[in-house]
């Protein structure tokens, strides 16, 4: 029997050539900024692995459903998706897509980006300030005996953000590579709709 982690519902994205959600009259506010309970939940950034307890998988599916609803009503969704696919490799649910879906979208488009932090995607965090990689390393070096929770408080970011930066440092990522191809917004939308399209009944799999 196959398992569905994330609900495969209608994509929160507008079809290419159709209008995006309500055009902002002034600087539009990201809907996720008012939903920190959903968008800052560590489970949304690190989905449960195959074989994780059903309770975690159910909660993850509920979080994704709530995030889908938020992105669907967000006036920034097209720009947000484009940046999350082409410019920033961030974690979590962003621009109507999961991190795994964005990997597949980039693969289809031939796009390569360096890993970054969710916090650097302007406007998608409600309350926390941006924090960069070097700053996390500096604070870690200055306070080697403190727990990661305390470091997160010092930095004003989430625990998962601290963990991700330290993991990235441990893995010593290769030098930044340029974006091989810079696709158009339409190409990103089309690839996204292809990737997020609900699977036929009986062929659903984890997203
Ligand atoms: S993740 Fe992007 S599209 Fe979704 S609510 Fe936040 S700013 Fe809007």
Automatic annotation (TrEMBL):
Signal peptide: none annotated. This is 4Fe-4S Wbl-type domain-containing protein. Residues 31-104 form the 4Fe-4S Wbl-type domain. Residues 16-28, 173-182 have a biased composition (Low complexity). It comes from the Bacteria. It comes from Microlunatus capsulatus. It holds the Pfam family Whib. Residues 1-28, 166-186 are annotated as: Disordered.
């Amino acid at each position: 029997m196959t398992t569905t982690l994330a609900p495969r519902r209608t994509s929160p994205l507008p079809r290419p050539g159709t209008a995006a959600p309500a055009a902002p009259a002034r600087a539009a506010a990201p809907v996720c900024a008012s939903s920190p309970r959903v968008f800052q939940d560590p489970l949304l950034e690190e989905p449960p692995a195959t074989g994780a307890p059903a309770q975690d998988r159910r909660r993850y599916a509920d979080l994704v459903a709530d995030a889908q609803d938020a992105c669907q009503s967000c006036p920034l969704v097209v720009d947000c998706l484009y940046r999350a696919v082409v410019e920033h490799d961030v974690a979590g649910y962003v621009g109507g897509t999961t991190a795994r879906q964005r990997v597949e979208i980039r693969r289809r488009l031939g796009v390569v980006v360096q890993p970054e932090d969710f916090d650097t995607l302007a406007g998608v965090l409600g309350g926390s300030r941006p924090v960069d990689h070097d700053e996390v390393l500096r604070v870690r070096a200055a306070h080697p005996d403190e727990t990661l929770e305390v470091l997160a408080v010092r930095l004003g970011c989430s625990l998962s953000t601290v963990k991700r930066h330290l993991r990235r440092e441990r893995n010593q990522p290769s030098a930044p590579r340029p974006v091989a191809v810079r696709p158009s917004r339409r190409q990103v939308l089309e690839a996204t709709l292809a990737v997020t399209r609900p699977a036929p009944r009986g062929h659903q799999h984890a997203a």
